[in-house]
Design a protein that fits this description.
34% of the residues lie in helices and 24% in strands. The protein has 2 domains: 39 residues, Orthogonal Bundle (GTP Cyclohydrolase I, Chain A, domain 1); 136 residues, GTP Cyclohydrolase I, domain 2, CATH 3.30.1130.10. It starts with 14 loop residues before the first helix and ends with a helix. It has a 5-stranded mixed sheet with strand order 5-2-3-6-7, sandwiched between helices. A two-stranded antiparallel sheet has the order 1-4. The protein is built from 6 helices and 7 strands, in the order H-H-E-E-E-E-H-E-H-E-H-E-H. By secondary structure, the protein is an alpha+beta fold.
């Protein structure tokens, strides 16, 4: 059975205590003394940080896009570049940092606030993630929750699991994109949107 990774989870009542216990066990497994002065508060700090890092698990990020404004005359793409995000790869739970560039074609009735787009992006990012899935989820939210006619999402990111361990490839970037709606089959329009997303700042 495939789990729906778009659905919000429910945070257990004892989540922080469970996490503190797990961190303490990991320190012991490393041969450390979790009771020494420098580590006494570490389990609590780590648990609190992780609850913040993964807060997107407990919301439906697409709901941010349901706050809309009437815009009957908006017939051109809305483009937002350089939305910063921090996520964590689900394989090693190491940071993934980067920028989201997105564009959508309004449905001719409504648009959403620009801050809502950033909140949606960060809601999906603050989860154990795959960059490919994150790209797809953002694009799907634009099409489903915002009811856009077309959407294109491009993500540029650096993965700590590439730079801190294994091959240690410093400064390597991973690019992913997803396109949907009217732009999916229209190669000319798609190329135009890509050019606008990657255009140098004014």
């Amino acid at each position: 059975m495939t789990e729906n990774l778009n659905n919000a989870l429910t945070l257990p009542d004892n989540a922080q205590k469970q996490m503190e216990k797990a961190v303490k066990e990991m320190l012991l497994a490393l041969g450390e003394n979790p009771n020494r002065e420098g580590l006494q508060e570490t389990p609590k700090r780590v648990a609190k940080a992780w609850l913040e890092f993964f807060s997107g698990l407990y919301e439906n990020p697409g709901d941010h896009l349901k706050t809309r404004f009437s815009s009957e005359n908006c017939k051109t793409p809305v483009i937002v570049r350089d939305i910063p995000f921090i996520s964590f790869c689900e394989h090693h739970l190491l940071p993934v940092t980067g920028k989201v560039h997105l564009a959508y074609l309004p449905n001719g009735r409504e648009v959403t606030g620009l801050s809502k787009l950033a909140r949606m992006v960060n809601g999906y990012a603050r989860r154990p993630q795959l960059q490919e899935r994150l790209t797809r989820q953002i694009c799907e939210a634009l099409m489903t929750d915002l009811e856009a006619k077309a959407a294109l999402v491009l993500i540029e990111a650096e993965h700590a699991c590439m730079s801190l361990r294994g091959i240690r490839a410093q400064n390597s970037q991973t690019l992913t994109f997803e396109v949907a709606g009217e732009w999916e089959e229209n190669l000319t329009k798609r190329q135009e949107i890509f050019s606008l997303l990657k255009q140098q700042p004014f």
